[in-house]
């Protein structure tokens, strides 16, 4: 109906006006942020998906870096960073976990990691580790079986011709398929004749 169409058009125009106003407001906030010298990053209030996309666009046009953080749709917010203060991967991870970024704590963590890496490197350079507890069952029973018992046992094993080990010469069947089939049929006939 014409009334519904008119109402729909009015709603669309109102929505468009709100988006334009929101964009102007964001442009003002972003320009204030750019002029604020002591502010490397700014966190905006949680906003819906459309508003976030508008803010990301405004930030990109202004030459800033922006990211969205937060788990559910109601609490997602945008953070805008000046290019010279672009966040490190560690900083982004902290925000994704919902933590506040603390550069001093991050530096401490980095130093600890470096120290651990240096210690590991020093251990590797110092040579093999001192012998620890045996982790192989053969080591555990070495005092009983000796270190070369298995090799000695392998050497003494001889093929039992009556069982298991068949010489290759005995394995080879030089008959053709027809000869083998004829032999099988002859044995069958012989069995049937014996049964009768």
TrEMBL record:
Region: Disordered, residue numbers: 99-139
Biased composition (Basic and acidic residues): 99-114
PROSITE patterns tied to this protein: R3H
SUPFAM superfamilies named among the record's database cross-references: R3H domain
One annotated GO molecular function: nucleic acid binding
InterPro entries associated with the record: R3H_dom, R3H_dom_sf, R3H_sperm-antigen, SPAG7
Domain R3H: 20-83
Descriptive protein name: SPAG7 protein
Organism: Cinclus mexicanus (American dipper)
